[in-house]
Write a structure and sequence with these properties.
Structural class: alpha/beta
Radius of gyration: 21 Å
Helix content: 40-55%
Strand content: 15-25%
Distance between the termini: 47 Å
Number of strands: 11
Largest sheet: 8 strands, mixed
Number of helices: 12
């Protein structure tokens, strides 16, 4: 019985503390053990019980396992999960002893946040020369972000999928316009950087998922907006990620592609693993139509050496053509520059 399973899972002080911590932010098992002041094996046993009761979700990213409160999801506002969330909120608000313990635990989260930010800073210090060189070539990020907002217009973004989220910059920029954001990246390192960037946002508003843009780990018609920001040039065959984007995009939803116009800077292949040297408007229009989108007029943003383009298209009710999938030997990393 689902009700009995939930009540049994919550009948332990440590598991109650875990639920309140994960309501604040997504945590790795080791981070959770650090906050609770308990051994990782002991915490893992509590986590297993909460996972079995469907109160929390467990997701592997490389060698790390991250935990997320299932009560914070967009579909958990009603039913038993919604009632459980209300119960825990009420317990912290009206039980002084429990509230004091939660407050103490929340203070320990500051150390976790600081460690993540230090890790991100060290990463960028190690790669600063490459990032700076690429930034100098393209349109300034602030100008691109303003143009992207203009291209998307005033229509609500709804549930947004940021494919190749990288450091989470685009997700952070668009968080105010989206009801919920899912950031996807193949690289666990990039997901850790994104987590450090997004951790100040409410936990219910965003989540991060490890996966490949050629085989998205989501059900069909799951998203209102799909974004590929400086990602598509990592695809040897761009029709594959575009077909997947079309599959998960709802009818009437939109796709936004921010990428480079066609260029001849061959050094980007070796230094930044670019599989494609930008795209022409004709290429992008044909691929979007093939995938079942109706393209709008693209935007052009000249940079010092490279031009950035923004292509926006609306998902059609019926694709105008069936995407042709071609096999590739190796899928590339899908994160783009910060």
């Amino acid at each position: 019985m689902e009700t009995e399973r939930i009540i049994r899972a919550l009948a332990d002080p440590t598991r109650l503390r875990i639920m309140r911590l994960l309501a604040r932010m997504e945590l790795a098992v080791g981070e959770l053990a650090q906050v609770l002041g308990q051994s990782q094996p002991r915490v893992s046993r509590h986590v297993a019980i909460l996972v079995d009761s469907a109160l929390i979700e467990r997701r592997r990213e490389g060698s790390w396992i991250f935990l997320r409160c299932a009560l914070a999801g967009t579909g958990a506002s009603t039913g038993l999960l919604g009632a459980t969330a209300q119960l825990l909120d009420s317990a912290e608000a009206h039980d002084p002893a429990f509230a004091a313990q939660c407050e103490e635990d929340h203070r320990h989260l500051a150390a976790i946040r600081e460690h993540r930010e230090d890790h991100a800073a060290a990463y960028f210090a190690d790669h600063a020369e490459d990032w700076d060189r690429l930034r100098d070539m393209v349109t300034p990020a602030g100008d691109v972000e303003t143009a992207l907002r203009d291209a998307l217009g005033d229509a609500p973004l709804g549930t947004l999928l940021d494919i190749g989220t990288g450091t989470g910059r685009s997700a952070e920029v668009l968080a105010g316009e989206a009801a919920h954001i899912v950031g996807l990246d193949r690289s666990p390192e990039m997901l850790r950087l994104a987590r450090a960037r997004l951790q100040h946002l409410p936990a219910a508003r965003w989540e991060l998922v490890q996966g490949d843009f050629g085989a998205l780990p989501f059900a069909s018609v799951s998203f209102d907006t799909v974004l590929l920001h400086q990602v598509l040039h990592f695809a040897p065959d761009p029709t594959l990620p575009l077909a997947e984007a079309a599959r998960v995009c709802r009818e009437g939803g939109r796709i936004a592609i921010v990428d480079l116009a066609a260029h001849n800077r061959e050094e980007l292949r070796a230094r930044h693993a670019h599989a494609r040297l930008g795209f022409t408007d004709e290429q992008m229009r044909d691929w979007l139509v093939q995938s079942g989108f109706a393209p709008a007029s693209p935007l052009t943003l000249p940079g010092q050496d490279l031009t950035t383009k923004i292509w926006v298209a609306t998902r059609c009710a019926t694709p105008t053509a069936t995407p042709v999938k071609k096999s590739v030997k190796k899928k590339e990393l899908i994160h783009g520059p910060v």
